[in-house]
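ENTRY TYPE: protein
CONTENTS: sequence, structure tokens:
***
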Amino acid sequence: KSGYFALLSLQGLVLQFFHQLYWKLALWGNRQPVYFKWPVGAIATLSYCAFWLLRLPGLWVSRVRTYYGDRAAAEATGNPNGLTKALAKLSFGCAASVERQGYTPALLERAALLLPVSPDLARYQLYGRYSLTELFAWDSLNSLRGWMSIRDSHPPLGDRLRLIMAYAQHWKLEMTIALPSPPRRQ
């Protein structure tokens, strides 16, 4: 309805090109003689820089559309608790992939603006030791969370889950996790 999909799709296509160019050149350049690695490495680096710079305008759009998407998914399914669990599991699944490979897979990095969540390695490594409420409370309580996630393609997942749980509370459903509200600014 909002038209964000068309804008993000177009931007995603451009980002795919620059990231793919970077990725292929970097892999190809590693197999070349030393005298050839420098120019290929420079082009790959410039391509990666272009990828990151062109990604910046889409960050705001990507963040805003996640809130619209969360609301639409909660309304369509009538189950905000299921959406909460799905988003947490998806984030942990992406993080498991990153940890297993030892680096962020190219596809995951390339399509970050279009994905519903981003991988969260720190939380993934703590999963099972703490409840979901404890794992995601930091996103709601840390006053610097906005600054710390300024380059992220998604808002802090704890903030999203707190809002989804507000939908559950409004619809008088039992909440899967009860996240605290952020402190009020004075």
Remarks:
- The first helix runs from residue 4 to 30.
- Residues 113 and 153 are 6 Å apart (CA to CA).
